[in-house]
Amino acid sequence: MEENLTKTCLHDRHVALGALMSPFGGFDMPIQYKGITEEHNAVRQEVGVFDVSHMGEVRVKGPDAYKFVSHIFVNDVTGAPDGQIFYGMMCYENGGTVDDLLVYKVNDEEYFLVINASNIAKDVDWIIKNSEGFNVEITDQSPYYGEVAIQGPKAEETMENVLGIPVKDIAFYNFKTFPIDGEEVIVSRTGYTGEDGFEVYGSHDFTQKVWDKLMEAGVQPCGLGCRDTLRFEVGLPLYGDELSADITPIEASLSMFVKLDKEEFIGKEALALQKAEGVKRRIVGLELEGNAIPRHGYPVEVDGVQVGEITTGYRSISTGKSVAMAMINKPFDKLGTKVEVRIRKKTFPATVVKKRFYDKSYKK
Question: What confidence score (pLDDT) does residue 3 get?
């Protein structure tokens, strides 16, 4: 193991369970336990639990909290009830993506931001730098929080029966704070799998207790391997693949989260221009013929000329098809367009399809 990798508060438990460990975003993380397919299917059919303590948490508090969050976030949190959660991006002036994140509205003077593990230091610096002139206090709480994600059709039942946390009344993309064991625990109805589920944020000690209870109850532990196959099947982006400093939310086909009718926000001008003029390339879905597996970085060609590249590709566990998300130049991004994916020295026929390969089943 690389010496400088950070360990989550559940690290020893993963090792004891015999998980395959690997570096991810500066952390030593479990990739799989029993196997990616088995863990993937557990989440689609029953329930699984992920250690997501590597994610970053930033608290924004103060009289200007609403104004500041609106300034750095492309989605619109105006008039939202307390307890609502928003997905969206923070962008640079040129429209490139700083990160995609969740914004939890505690109240008008307090927001809780959940950011990607690999971006914590960069994001926190960027947030602090852009807070100048706003009356807000910014706290990086990433070192304090542990986090687990309980995901799957039986997630609600598991939360209530195994953990004793009443979650039935939490609507999708909402959260509640519970006083448990002398601390404030945040529970949100969110996830990254396309299934119903919850994310639970608490101290390291609390997170370890939750994990142990779930293991005793026989809940399947899941690694980052199936976290990727699950999010990919339902068309959810991964920062570094479908979003980056060089890929705007519009190019990533995520413009529904960019609210251009709200007041100014960082990157608004560049994104408005892209939306008005159209982009030269965008993220689409591809379905390959046969069994060849497309991987990140493989070229996409038309008549021997490269017109794009794969951002994520798999043999979809839930559908059995070889599918990919790819950044494709216009006009080859239209649904039904025939392209070819180069895998080493051979090319394989593929068709542009919607980038959701499997239907999400969230609780309505």
Answer: 63
Contact call for residues 165 and 93 (beta carbons, < 8 A): no
User: In the chain, pLDDT over 90 holds for what percent of residues?
Assistant: 96
Proportion of the chain above pLDDT 70, given as a percent = 99
Instruction: Share the mean pLDDT of the chain.
Output: 97
Amino acid found at 80: A
Mean pLDDT of 336-356: 96
Closest to 172 in 3D by CA, of 203, 211, 198:
198
Q: Is 327 exposed, middle or buried (0-12, 13-18, 19+ CB in 10 A)?
A: buried
Cα gap 270→33, rounded to integer Å: 44
Tell me the residue type at 215: M
Question: What digits encode the pLDDT tens for the residues 293-309?
Answer: 999 999 999 999 999 99
| Strands 220-222 vs 48-51: parallel, antiparallel or unpaired | parallel
Tell me how far the alpha carbon of residue 245 is from its chain's centroid: 16
8 Å CB contact between 261 and 313: no
Alpha-carbon span 154 to 139, nearest angstrom: 34
264 alpha carbon, distance to own chain's centre? 25
Q: What interhelical angle do 36-45 and 224-233 show, nearest 10?
A: 50
In the block, tokens 């051979």 appear at 346
- CB neighbours of residue 333 within 10 Å: 21
Q: Is the Cβ–Cβ distance between 253 and 283 less than 8 Å?
A: yes
**Band (1; pLDDT cuts 50, 70, 90):** very low
Residue 2 has pLDDT above 70, yes or no: no
Cα distances (angstroms) measured from residue 167 to each of 59, 156, 159, 273: 23, 7, 7, 42
- What is the spatial distance between Cα 221 and Cα 83, in angstroms, rounded to a whole number? 28
